Amino acid sequence: MSSIIRFQDHVGAKAEKFYKTTLFQGDHMLVGLNCLEPGQSQALHDHADQDKVYVVMEGSGHFTIGDAVQEAGEGSIIWAQAGVPHGVENTGSIRLTVLVCMAPPPH
Amino acid sequence: MSSIIRFQDHVGAKAEKFYKTTLFQGDHMLVGLNCLEPGQSQALHDHADQDKVYVVMEGSGHFTIGDAVQEAGEGSIIWAQAGVPHGVENTGSIRLTVLVCMAPPPH
Predict the structure, then answer these.
(1) Domains of chain A with CATH codes
(2) CB–CB of B31 and A101 under 8 A?
């Protein structure tokens, strides 16, 4: 796979659950894309030993990070340090696409 | 620092060298912002033991990743796996702002 891509070429949709795809993976980090249709959500969860960041590429949604709950749209950066519960719901009217970096990558 | 921020609130400029700021850092990953004024560049370099990804937030530039050289603009994602040389030059007419995730973080 090329090392230089456009996120728009990798979006997708699933009816039953939000769409997830891996873009890149190394020994130290995974880069993926999560696409949530309006109303879809990723339940609150945490990763004990992984730092994670979301970057909103398009759309907007309701992000929960620990005790913080906030609407965030394009250009927002959302940080979930290891152990901090996080989740997201697409509360908007268009697709919410978030880039996700996770380190280290899942086994 | 809040866990939910907008990149626009963290951009900056320096005359002598491109502007760098750290947004978040955990045990496993660093998230930062690099802002290059037109004509500024980050010389080709590599990190033997760190995976890195750039996300173009605004502007466009000339990215080199190993043997790949490509213009990339807003919405582009550029992957430099550990050991792969990478660099960027702002060849456009406006500021080039790239989000950078690096794992593990520098010591």
Answers:
(1) 17-103 (2.60.120.10)
(2) yes
**Record: contact A3-B75, CB cut-off 8 A:** no
* pLDDT per residue as tens digits for the range A21-32: 999 999 999 999
Element spanning B77, H or E: strand B76-80
* pLDDT tens per residue, range B15-54: 999 999 999 999 999 999 999 999 999 999 999 999 999 9
User: ipTM, 2 decimals?
Assistant: 0.95
pTM score, whole prediction: 0.96
Q: From edge to edge, which strands make up the β-sheet containing A19-25?
A: A19-25, A30-36, A96-103, A51-58, A76-80, B4-6
Which of B81, B53, B86 lies closest to B70 in space, CA to CA?
B86
- Can you say whether the dihedral through the CA atoms of A98, A103, A106, B5 is positive or negative? negative
Helices (H), chain B: none
Closest in B2, B53, B70 to A68, CB measured: B2
For B17, half-sphere exposure in the C-beta direction (CA atoms, 13 angstrom radius) is: 4
